[in-house]
Amino acid sequence: MEIKVNENNVEGALKVLKRKLEREGLFKEIKRREAFEKPSQKRKRKQIEAKKKRARSCRFKRTNLKNR
After folding, report:
1. Which residues of 43-56 are buried (b: 16+ CB within 10 A; e: fewer)?
2. pLDDT at residue 67, as a whole number
3. 3-state secondary structure at position 12
């Protein structure tokens, strides 16, 4: 990942970097790894994530079909 700093605007570049890292889920992953997660909690979290992913893909497919 590369962030360019224009005209010595370091604060703006940091803001862009944090936004990109947040979108990729890095901060969420770090928080998740800080403490031990029981196997039952892990299964439940993965099920919830899969459900969200399916809903997102269905939503995208529906909007994609409307645009045709």
Report:
1. eeeeeeeeeeeeee
2. 61
3. helix
